[in-house]
Design a protein that fits this description.
Helix content of chain B: under 10%
Strand content of chain B: over 45%
Order of helices and strands of chain B: EEEEEEEEEEE
Largest sheet of chain B: 7 strands, mixed
Helix content of chain A: under 10%
Number of helices of chain B: 0
Largest sheet of chain A: 6 strands, mixed
Number of strands of chain A: 11
Largest interface: A-B, 26 and 28 residues
Structural class of chain B: mainly beta
Radius of gyration of chain B: 13 Å
Radius of gyration of chain A: 13 Å
Oligomer: heterodimer
Number of helices of chain A: 0
């Protein structure tokens, strides 16, 4: 069973738009939530991460919003650019160790 | 340069053949992982290892085997028992502790001839 549910599967936005990718989880033992960005033919790279003691984290044009009570978190990309076109994965890690649980990924296309 | 090196980038397997994917890291990380990536299915954990000479099965270990004889190396063998091996395989490593970052290699694309 999928421990982390991610949506949408694909997303197309115009340059300058704000794509939003959503993830949800059930296990309250998760306490670290990273997002990874993957370009075709490459391995994923860490983009931004958040812990549940804060509701929002920003790094440049990337923002994570976290709703602990709803067990949901989302990635927002401000002023999106064609170079942001990639697959994005959310993940969750338990407080007991380093086993990473990944969402199924969102393929983002930013049209010039 | 510190990082994770996977080889080869492309690999072809014949029916009934075992193939081994290489993964080497020079980040001095304790933990290493193998993931399989199929379109629309995200990243699925095959095996992981926290320390040398110890490893654990992930969600889809059947048809795969690993070894961890050195801290730097974690090779994955895709055996003939894996009937659907065509996928993109990713090796990763991290420190062992809360919130440690996961670093990925550049992947190996395995296809069946």
């Amino acid at each position: 069973q999928q421990q982390v549910k991610q949506s949408p599967q694909s997303l197309i936005v115009q340059k300058g738009g704000i794509p939003i990718i959503n993830c949800a989880y059930e296990n309250t033992a998760f306490d670290y939530f990273p997002w990874y960005q993957q370009f075709p033919g490459k391995g994923p790279a860490l983009l931004i991460a958040i812990r549940p003691d804060v509701s929002e984290k920003k790094e440049g044009r990337f923002t994570i919003s976290f709703n602990k009570s709803a067990k949901q978190f989302s990635l927002h990309i401000m002023d999106s650019q064609p170079g942001d076109s990639a697959t994005y994965f959310c993940a969750a890690i338990k407080n007991t160790g380093n086993q990473f649980y990944f969402g199924t990924g969102t393929s983002l296309t930013v049209i010039p | 340069d510190g990082g994770i090196t996977q080889s080869p980038k492309y690999l072809f397997r014949k029916e009934g053949q075992n193939v081994t994917l290489s993964c080497e890291q020079n980040l001095n990380h304790d933990a290493m992982y193998w993931y399989r990536q199929d379109p629309g299915q995200g990243l699925r954990l095959i095996y992981y290892s926290q320390i040398v000479n110890d490893f654990q099965k992930g969600d889809i270990a059947e048809g795969y085997s690993v070894s961890r004889e050195k801290k730097e190396s974690f090779p994955l063998t895709v055996t003939s028992a894996q009937k659907n091996p065509t996928a993109f395989y990713l090796c990763a490593s991290s420190g062992w502790g809360r919130g440690e970052k996961l670093f990925f290699g550049s992947g190996t694309q395995l296809s069946v001839l």
